[in-house]
Automatic annotation (TrEMBL):
Highest taxon of the lineage: Bacteria
Family: Belongs to the UPF0174 family.
Domain Ubiquinol-cytochrome c chaperone stretches: 36-173
PANTHER family in alphabetical order: UBIQUINOL-CYTOCHROME C REDUCTASE COMPLEX ASSEMBLY FACTOR 1 FAMILY MEMBER (PTHR12184), UBIQUINOL-CYTOCHROME-C REDUCTASE COMPLEX ASSEMBLY FACTOR 1 (PTHR12184:SF1)
Protein name: Cytochrome b pre-mRNA-processing protein 3
Pfam families, per the entry: Ubiq_cyt_C_chap (PF03981)
Length: 181
């Protein structure tokens, strides 16, 4: 009986988080990022964009309770499972994966702390710098202000979305390159 009671909710959350994660991945893979804004189309560049979009939804769900809080945790778990799977697909050995996962987790949490701080302080300059430092550390990235505009638009867009709709598995991210980005 307990399995039936708790298993049904778990399966529902799994279906919702799978749907949300698919939408996050689709948003992170928008070709415009790579073709127009010079985001590196490499495993690390794709990690950066996926991290950013996971952060954006996490930022929206921050401080929620109940199902939304549970979904936020499952989304983080799904993200790191996806990263683990990707490392293995790239040919990283079973011995090397845990070390790389620790490094990527530190990268994710460091980046998201910088993004959250810049958004909290409404400091566009800090957000431009953080995005540039993380996505194109090898050069001065002239497109960083455009991605900053996108991030701010996404935060505004996500905050306007109904929490019940998100908890049902529907989230919408802006299209890159729209509205003056």
């Amino acid at each position: 009986m307990f399995k039936r009671l708790f298993g049904a909710r778990s399966q529902t959350n799994r279906e919702v988080t799978d749907a949300l994660y698919e939408q996050i991945v689709a948003a992170a893979r928008q070709p415009y990022f790579y073709s127009h804004w010079n985001v590196p189309d490499t495993p690390l560049g794709r990690f950066e964009m996926l991290s950013l979009h996971v952060f954006l939804l996490q930022h929206r769900l921050h401080g929620t309770q109940g199902k939304a809080h549970d979904i936020a945790q499952v989304l983080i778990d799904e993200f790191f499972l996806d990263v683990d799977h990707s490392l293995r697909e790239l040919g990283i050995s079973d011995v090397g994966v845990p070390k790389r996962m620790k490094r990527l987790a530190r990268m994710y949490y460091g980046r998201t702390a910088a993004y959250a701080d810049a958004l909290e302080r409404q400091d566009d300059g800090a957000l431009v710098a953080a995005l540039g430092r993380n996505i194109r550390p090898d050069e001065e990235w002239l497109e960083s202000p455009r991605l900053t505009t996108y991030v701010k638009m996404a935060v505004q867009n996500l905050s306007a979305q109904d929490l019940d709709a998100i908890c049902a598995g529907s989230v919408k991210f802006p299209r890159a390159g729209e509205q003056g980005q």
